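LOG
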Amino acid sequence: MRKNKQFYLIGILIIAIIITLVGLLELSAIKDIFFWGQIQRLILAIVAGMLFYLLPFKNLKLLSYVFHVLILILLVVVLFSSHEDVKRWIPIGSFNIQPSEFAKLSLILVISRIYAEREKIKNSQVLKALLVTMLTAALVLIEPDLATSVTYFFIFFAITYGVGAPREILIPLILV
């Protein structure tokens, strides 16, 4: 079973690398500056991915709340800074970061952590996950970025459904 999982993960990695290389080739045909900017981001993404891979799962579980609180702070900071009249980016040196994108990852980690606390999903866990999602979405909606806010709710529903939350909980949430 482990070999199948490794083969599957290697296959996904190869596909991701091919897609990235095709994208880089397309960018290099347009403008050189876009190409080198994407190379920098690719290197940063690989380093970040390796750090997450090397981080033991227990530590990731413990750090999920801290990571999300830091992202929420950045989402508040973004409201008071603007880059070219857009309140979604924080300039850091030659880079601009968009905390709402990191919030997707941190929201996945936090919601997963909330549901991992008990074996059987309880209403209180769903409510806690929903409140965290609503807070994150509200901060992004103020920017304004409706599409990303809606994405957070899709993340919430996908994870809530994936962990096997009862229909009695899911259906009313979807209807609202």
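LOG (cont.) second protein
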Amino acid sequence: MAALPHDSSDQTNSSKKQSIDIIGIQEHRWKGSEDFNTKNTQDTTWVLYYSNADARSNGGVGILVHKHLYKFISSVKNHQISAGYAPTKIADDEDKDRFYDQFTKACKTCPKHDIVVFFGDMNAQIGHNSQGIAHKNDRKWSWMHPNGYKRELDHIAVTEKWRGSFTNCRAYSKVELNSDHKIVSCHFQLEFSRQVLEFKKHTTFNWMILPNDNEKRTNFQTKLNSALTENLRCNNDISTDKMNNILISTITKAAEETIGKRNLNPWALEVTLKLIDNCHNLKMKYLKQNESHRNVINANHLVNKSYKQDRE
């Protein structure tokens, strides 16, 4: 904007119609009593956070936030939203260097996992299309020179990690700004990468061998008693949860060293598998050669009977 009027209802009403909740303000030219100020709009539906303009009332940046987001400003810690504007091409090199040094410093001070958003009049053009959704040219340019040519000078920058959460970046002509710039907005929908959960494989030990194998049963009891005695001697005053963990780990280690894992047998035995093949062959003969369907029924009966025996 060329300057932010004290009555900003035109801007806020137009933004509300386009479902815009946060507005970055550049060059508002306001001066407050503090370095960082807060001000409510006249309709009390928006709150303006802004820094002061200089002594000549030039510059100044701020962020307009709709009331339904205002309550989150002091509690949400992992969002960093900043507004600014870059010096023009004809500005002094010292001013340009100072701006980009401040911009770089602000980005580096943000934790790497935070959602960092920076928007403003960057007075610069970028290369390929990065709106997220293809738009016609009228929705791309954000500034028009008095001579009539148009440029994309206003941008919204986000950290690469959260790039997928920001879509449909475009410029609006319907939002009244009283400026030679158009408002640029984007849609934000938080997306998290899918986490692949790693499940720990449960080990099944061959406990059924203990009643029948005296040697392994004796070795297991000896190992278990020795380990439990040592652990209890070293941990006299421990909690119930810790005692439970010690007991589980001790039994597991003793079982690994003496009993071993249980080899799981195939659920269906070889006899059943042969009956299944025979049933399949009879079914194919019935379909192709019109043989008796009674043979297929009898074969299915034998398969089911064999399955039942395998379960037992």
